[in-house]
Each structure stands twice: as C-alpha cells, then as structure tokens.
Design a protein that fits this description.
three-stranded antiparallel sheet, 15 strands, about 40% helix, about 10% strand, about 550 residues, eight-stranded antiparallel sheet, alpha+beta, Beta-lactamase, 16 helices
C-alpha cells in the first residue's frame, strides 16, 4: 500500500477577514439624558432673563395731522426701521407755525418727541462751520490760515497736512481720512461690535502729527478733518471747543438742550439703537465732538438753529453760503454721508459744513444729515420750507424722508427695506442650525453632514461655535418678526448638548478626522473665529449697557 503523498496536501484557505470597524462611542445612558434635559431647562430660564429685547418698531405717527400723514405715507413699509422719531416742518416765512409729529409705539406712546435729546451725529458739524464763519466775520481768524500757522509746534510728518487750511477742512477738501493713520484696525473692530469707532481712535491733534494727507482737489468726507477744525478754532480763540460752541452758537440761539456729553448721556435722552430692539452704546469720544461725536440735541433746538440760519440771524449764518461749487466727490465718507441719498440727482456744492444740492427738477436744498450707530438726523431748508428730524435708530433713511417732506414732488414712498427679511431669516437660521449640529453630534455620535465620528475636537469647536453665535444674536440679531423666547430655547438646547458632550469626553478619541491635518487646521480656525466673535460681541454688549 502506497504511502499518502502529503506534499500535495495544501492548507485550507482561511476565511476572509472582517473589515475593520470604526469605533463608535456608546450612547449616553438615560440618567445622562435626563440630566442634560434638566441642565438645558435651567439654562433656558436663565437665558430668557438676558434675551435680546423684542423689536418694537413704530406703528404710526401722532401730532399735526398733515405732517403725520406725510411721514407715514413716505415711510410706508420702512416704518419698521423706526423706534423713536420726531419730525418738524415749517415755512420759512412763518417759522413760528411749526408742524410737529412723532412716532407712536405699539401701546400708543410717543417715546421720542421734540424735546427728547438724541445723538446728532454729523448734523453738529454745521455748528463747527458756523463757528468758523463767525470768527472770520469777527476778524479772529482767516479761512486761509493753515494748520502749521495755528499749531507751530505740532511737528507734522507730512508737509501737505501742515499746509491744510481752515477752508479746506470745512469743505471736506483737506485730503484727510476718517481717523488718524494707524487707527484703522481698532476702528474696524469697534465697528464690528457696534460700539463707537472713535473711542478707539487717537485724539485728533495727537494723531494728526503722524498722518499723511491725500489729494485735496476732491471732496472726501472726513470726520478727522472736522475734529481738527473745531480744535483749531478753539486754539485761535484761546478756549476749548465745548466752551466756544456754547458761547458763540448754542447760547445765543437758546439751544439749552444741545450738549456735548463728555461722560454718560443727557438726562431724558433717547437710548441709542441700531434698529428697533438692538441697543447700542452712544458714541462718546468727545475729542471728536466738532465732527458730531458725543453731541446731543432736540428737534426743538434744531428748529431754532435752522430757522436762524435760513433767515441770516444766527451767529455764523454765512456758513450756509456757497464757497465751493459743483464739487467732485472722490471718496466714500465714514460714519454718515451728507452728500448721499437725497431723492434726486443733482450737483453738490459746499458752504462751510453745509451742503447744497442743486437739481433741474427741484429748488436748491441746503442741508446736513447725521448718522451714528444709534441715531439718524437731518436739517434741511430750501427757499420756502424747512424740515428737521431726529430718530434713535441708524436704519432710518433720514435724507430721503426729509427731502420728501420738503417738496411734494419728491414725495415718493421709500423703498421696502432690502435687508429686513434676509436678516430675520439669518437670525432664525443661527438660532436653529448650530444647536442642531451639536445635538446631532452628541446624540448620534456622528456629525450630521459628513457622518464623521464624534471626537473631542468636534465637541469643542461646535460648542464654542454655538456660544459665539448666541453672543452674536444677543447683540445683533434681528427680532422684528421672531419672539425672543426662541433665544432661550436655543441656549437651552446648546446647554443640554454640552452636558451630553461632557459625558462623552473620556470615551471618545481626541481626533477622528479622515484627514488629520485638515481636521486640525479647520479646528484651529474655527476656535479662533468663535473666540474672536464672542470677544467682540461681549465687548459690544457691555458697552451698550454700561
């Protein structure tokens, strides 16, 4: 019997190996989920106490029937941009017969009337222009005086800055920008947080020494230029700008409620709002008061000023006379734009601070508007009629409204607000989507979109992202159409998700991305963005309520 040939026997083929499975974190037990619900409920209640104010746009106007009806008709759908607004209109031949109107709120109250102080913004520049005209008339200075002559010890780095004249400053032909050179980053960050940008700017005279001027042959709107002008006039008079303005213009016109608020806000003033319900800090950098920063007035006071300028009886009324015709606009202004939307195309001419718009269709209008983050203002007059308005929201189209009220032919209703619906939608999106992504991560143990497993990097980045967007919504969310209780629900959902995420922390890897380098890079960028947004919004919230 032959022996078996074992050399032909082969090992059996092993079964195929099972594919490697990605580790899946265990589901949170019931006690953890119940704890998360309790924490979420507690945070929601707490967040409700700090929820942003419900928007309260105006619902109509009270006062003289004809003016109130005209304001309502012109605003149309844009009435949602109004929280408090006071308007006056009068014929120049009979300035004592003033029409008054003010916005009503949902309860029928009038939060801002003709005696309520509101931030003026750049409307106050006309006071600075009037000071120059008055001092020239008195022989105390000349419009051709240069900064080098007024400040011989300044040590200007740029000879073009040293050669700037008072006339060039007063007509926005100085070549100066909005703030001193080097202040752009601080001003931008302040702007993003909706806090006053000039609080972060170098004092005008101090910053001017190292600033360079651009071309002087074009109109370039400059708050820095007007701040320097005011301090130059004060130096010529041997006093301070607030004292000079009070002595030469405000007191002679009986403008007792018009003030430069070097600290805090005037008694009874209207709180500043970016839009209805979005509270912002008033601009308080009094060094820039000649440009309209930290300046407050009432419609009643501005009626007195406008009437006196129009009839030539005001100190420095000659400031409204044209000194530069058909100016060429060479740069976008910062903060507000007196040469902006007027409701009619035409040429722009300049007095000292005052602007005049000429068009073939309408009588020439002499005007100045003002806009800061928490207010809008306007003074305007033509040969027959004058309009003054002050509102404590930035979103108001003050120039077009005033022009429409002055001239019936300009009286087309303002356009529907282009950003109201999109910004409301953005607010709703940020209330829902970030918390949903975080909840999905901790409940499913996978990301909702890319289906990647939970890890510590994702827990941290999504948590910080949610906190950042909640801070943003508290500061700048649009709540015109959304109940602010949704803010509390969103915060509660985030707190519940974070509670589950804390339980997962020791049970998940640090990083579980498909591409480690990409995952870590995105994580770092996300964290930096979130921390930056939280810092900016917290800064803004603190400033608004301090």
């Amino acid at each position: 019997m032959a022996s078996p040939d074992f050399s032909r026997v082969t090992d059996p083929v092993p079964p195929p190996a099972e594919p490697a499975r990605t580790h899946r974190a265990p589901a949170a037990p019931r006690r953890v989920r119940l704890t998360a619900l309790a924490v979420g409920a507690a945070v929601a209640v707490l967040a409700y106490l700090f929820a942003p104010a419900q928007s309260a746009p105006a619902t109509g106007f009270a006062g003289d029937e004809a003016l109130a009806a005209d304001v309502e008709r012109l605003l149309g759908d844009r009435i949602v941009e109004v929280q408090g607004l006071s308007v006056a209109r009068f014929d120049l031949e009979d300035p004592g017969s003033v029409e008054w109107a003010a916005a009503r709120d949902a309860d029928g109250g009038v939060p801002v009337d003709e005696h309520t102080p509101v931030e003026t913004g750049s409307v106050f520049k006309v006071v600075t222009g009037m000071l120059l005209a008055d001092m020239v008339e008195r022989g105390e200075t000349s419009p051709d005086r240069t900064l080098a002559e007024i400040f011989p010890d300044a040590g200007f780095a740029d000879p073009e800055v040293a050669s700037i004249t008072l006339r060039e400053l007063a007509t926005h032909h100085s070549g100066l920008g909005a703030v001193p050179d080097g202040d752009g980053l601080g001003v931008t960050l302040a702007s993003l947080s909706l806090t006053g940008p000039y609080e972060r700017a170098t004092p005008p005279l101090e910053g001017l020494a190292g600033t360079r001027a651009g071309a002087k042959d074009q109109y370039v709107y400059s708050n820095l230029g007007f701040a320097v002008l005011g301090h130059a006039l004060a130096a010529e008079a041997g006093t301070t700008y607030p004292d000079l303005a009070r002595e030469r213009v405000l007191d002679p016109l009986g403008m007792d409620d018009t003030v430069i608020a070097e600290e805090g806000t005037p008694e009874g003033a209207a709180p500043s709002h970016y839009e209805p319900g979005v509270r912002v800090a008033p601009w308080s950098a009094a060094d820039y008061a000649p440009a309209g920063v930290a300046t407050w007035s009432t419609v009643s006071d501005l009626v007195a000023l406008t009437s006196a300028v129009a009839d030539g009886s005001a100190p420095g009324a000659d400031a409204a006379e044209i000194v530069s015709e058909d100016v060429s606009i060479g740069g976008a202004p910062s903060g507000d734009e007196p040469a902006g939307e007027t409701g009619a195309a035409g040429s722009l001419s300049m007095g000292l601070a005052w602007h005049r718009m000429d068009s073939p269709e309408h009588a020439p209008v002499t005007f100045h508007n003002g806009k800061v983050y928490g207010a809008s203002s306007m003074v305007a007059f033509d040969g027959e009629r004058a309009v003054v308005l002050l509102g404590n929201t930035m979103t108001l189209q003050e120039t077009a409204l005033a022009m429409g009220l002055m001239d019936d032919e300009r009286g087309e209703p303002l356009t529907t607000p282009p950003l109201t619906v999109p910004m409301s939608v953005l607010t709703a999106f940020l209330l829902v989507v970030p918390p949903l992504l975080l909840l999905a991560l901790v409940a499913r143990r996978r990301t909702l979109v890319t289906q990647r497993p939970i890890d510590r990097l994702r827990v941290v980045s999504l948590t910080l992202g949610n906190l950042a967007w909640l801070a943003y919504l508290q500061r700048a969310g649009v709540w015109t159409e959304l109940p602010t209780g949704l803010f509390a629900l969103s915060a509660g959902a985030v707190a519940a998700a974070v509670t589950v995420g804390v339980w997962h922390w020791r049970r998940v890897p640090v990083e579980a991305g498909r591409f480690r380098w990409l995952h870590v890079t995105v994580f770092v960028l996300s964290v930096l963005f979130s921390l930056g947004l939280v810092t900016l919004m917290t800064w803004g919230i603190t400033a608004a309520w301090s």
